[in-house]
Structure to design on (626 residues):
């Protein structure tokens, strides 16, 4: 302690060196999900270099070929679908669509939902009443119907899908965040912030927001799977990204009718969805632990 | 002893009324409270739970709990400016820079996601727009005023890494950071254990000696008030029933409630088998009957007490009590 008082810069250096350590890569709960997500992202970015076939190229003679390890040929590692398209290539190209839709939708829904949730929860009164009624309506309305209407009026496209899925997805954020903010609003540290003269805006942004990052991250990572599924439902109804573009969701629904004979058509894209969701959740947990100062040093 | 001069009060509260409008009726939590605080002086506000001490202190900063709470009347004159007439933005300029407050529970009043350095720095950034080395020098100085050991290293700590006593010192540091003229301390030691309590009070006294900050010290503990304060206001059911200097109040209490309170403090210089207590419960503040609010528990009650509320009567030099017995 005495040394520390004499040379405070020594302590600072030590702290910085500790932070610089690369031990983060030794944490399995960080590096495995990060690797999975990086792999998927890499596949999406370099799809045209990585994919062995054109994802849209049909070949009826090769149709319904099983994966290589289940009696199929090495030509199609993960088999082919009912039009003879290579499943692996379609998964790689599908990653582009599915991941970018997920990221965009999460960004849009989390932003809208968090903003409305914090405003309603902190300001209360008629603002809260109005915002929560809108949220109720959004939750109660058959979302697919709105999405279909939107798709029909705007025409099916990537933008339409992102808009439609976002329209369905922001309400749970608003609800969850508002509930947490209601608790925080009466916390003593918020009163303390008001005592030192913080404006409501400042309190919402710098005192309340950092305290709701945890539930926000968890909901965001959990919603990846749901978004991909809704996107596939839209494709199935003809309001999604129009075929023959490969998306993971539409591949799963393509193989639905053949699940007992040609299981690989649905299984592998499903596996990809599952891996992304799982990796997202693990990464969310890891991030939550890093962000919480109480857990950071454990 | 302070010479009795015509001092200019730093804060003068006149007939402050804060009511809560609930579905069941109007709760008169603060009902016509008046007092004043001189620069550098410590005023104690004593009373039992629910007597309106905390709401009074929050009303001074215009931070009455929502929804339902509202300041419906009176004046809060701080350096001659009526705080109740300021705009919300103007009021924010007073909070933390000229008037500050220490809350009761140090475990809850610090934000868990920021380092204590950040939290002490915030009022300085907001009100004095400091940055860089000047800022951190001020922050360190504030922590040093509260006797936090090796304050520079402590800046990097998070609240959860500190004990309750240390955290309450940090809260004190936040309160003093902008060198306000007045600090309202709302039972600052209630959540601390006895040894730390004495230490903290000594630090507050010390702080006051160094910065000449005036203090409103809210407490239910007469012993602490006797140690800390120059003058005392006794609150009962939303009203101040007696105000006097500490010495006067303890040697010559006039209101039956104060007499009861003074007698209920354990003392070494009296041989008594049991401590005296005041019979009964304080009244619910919803739909109060006319007359003196202490009447149902008062040992000296007479007819008039049930019919009319007693105003404040002079009971000596800088000593007033609101009791009909004092008048007669």
């Amino acid at each position: 302690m005495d040394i520390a008082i004499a040379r405070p810069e020594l302590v600072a250096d030590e702290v910085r060196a500790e932070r610089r350590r690369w031990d983060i890569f030794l944490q399995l709960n960080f590096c495995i999900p990060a690797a999975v997500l990086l792999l998927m992202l890499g596949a999406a970015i370099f799809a045209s270099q990585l994919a062995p076939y054109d994802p849209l190229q049909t070949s009826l003679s090769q149709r319904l070929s099983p994966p290589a390890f289940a009696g199929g040929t090495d030509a199609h590692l993960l088999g082919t679908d009912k039009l003879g398209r290579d499943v692996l290539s379609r998964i790689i190209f599908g990653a582009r669509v599915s991941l970018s839709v997920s990221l965009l939708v999460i960004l849009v829904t989390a932003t809208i939902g968090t903003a409305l949730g914090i405003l309603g929860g902190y300001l209360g009164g008629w603002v809260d009443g109005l915002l929560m009624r809108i949220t109720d309506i959004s939750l109660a309305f058959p979302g697919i119907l709105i999405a279909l209407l939107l798709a029909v009026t705007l025409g099916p496209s990537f933008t339409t899908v992102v808009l439609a899925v976002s329209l369905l997805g922001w309400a749970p954020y608003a609800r969850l965040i508002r509930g947490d903010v209601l608790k925080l609003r009466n916390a003593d540290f918020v009163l303390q912030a008001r005592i030192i003269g913080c404006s409501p805006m400042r309190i919402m942004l710098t005192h309340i927001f950092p305290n709701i990052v945890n539930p926000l991250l968890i909901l965001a990572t959990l919603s990846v799977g749901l978004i991909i599924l809704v996107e596939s439902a839209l494709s199935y109804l003809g309001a999604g990204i129009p075929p023959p573009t490969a998306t993971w969701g539409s591949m799963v629904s393509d193989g639905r009718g053949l699940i007992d004979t040609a299981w690989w058509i649905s299984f592998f894209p499903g596996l990809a969805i599952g891996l992304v969701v799982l990796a997202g959740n693990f990464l969310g947990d890891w991030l939550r632990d890093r962000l919480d100062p109480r857990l950071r040093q454990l | 002893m302070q010479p009795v001069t015509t001092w200019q009060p730093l804060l003068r509260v006149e007939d402050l009324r804060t009511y809560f409008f609930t579905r069941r009726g109007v709760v008169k939590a603060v009902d016509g409270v008046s007092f004043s605080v001189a620069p550098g002086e410590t005023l104690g506000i004593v009373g039992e739970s629910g007597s309106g001490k905390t709401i009074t202190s929050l009303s001074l900063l215009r931070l009455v709990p929502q929804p339902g709470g509202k300041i419906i009347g009176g004046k809060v004159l701080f350096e001659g400016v009526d705080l109740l007439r300021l705009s919300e933005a103007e009021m924010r300029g007073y909070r933390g820079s000229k008037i500050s407050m220490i809350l009761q529970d140090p475990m809850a009043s610090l934000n868990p996601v920021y380092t204590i350095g950040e939290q002490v720095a915030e009022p300085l950034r907001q009100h004095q727009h400091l940055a860089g080395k000047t800022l951190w020098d001020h922050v360190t100085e504030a922590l040093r005023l509260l006797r936090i050991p090796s304050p520079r290293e402590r800046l990097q700590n998070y609240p959860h890494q500190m004990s309750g006593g240390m955290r309450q010192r940090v809260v004190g540091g936040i309160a003093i950071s902008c060198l306000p003229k007045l600090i309202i301390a709302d039972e600052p030691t209630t959540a601390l254990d006895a040894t730390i309590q004495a230490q903290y009070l000594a630090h507050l006294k010390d702080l006051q000696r160094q910065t000449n900050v005036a203090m409103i010290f809210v407490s239910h503990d007469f012993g602490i008030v006797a140690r800390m304060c120059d003058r005392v206001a006794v609150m009962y059911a939303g009203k101040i029933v007696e105000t006097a200097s500490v010495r006067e109040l303890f040697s010559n209490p006039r209101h039956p409630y104060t007499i009861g309170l003074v007698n209920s403090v354990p003392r070494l210089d009296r041989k008594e088998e049991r401590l005296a207590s005041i019979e009964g419960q304080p009244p619910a503040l919803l739909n109060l009957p006319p007359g003196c609010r202490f009447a149902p528990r008062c040992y000296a009650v007479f007819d008039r007490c049930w019919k009319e509320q007693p105003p404040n009567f002079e009971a000596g030099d800088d000593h007033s009590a609101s009791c009909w017995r004092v008048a007669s």
Chain A touches chain B at residues 1, 4-5, 8, 11, 15, 124-125, 187-189, 191-199, 207, 210-211, 291, 293-294 (CB under 8 Å). The radius of gyration of chain A is 24 Å. Residues 80 and 86 of chain A are 5 Å apart (CA to CA). Chain A is about 70% helix and 0% strand.
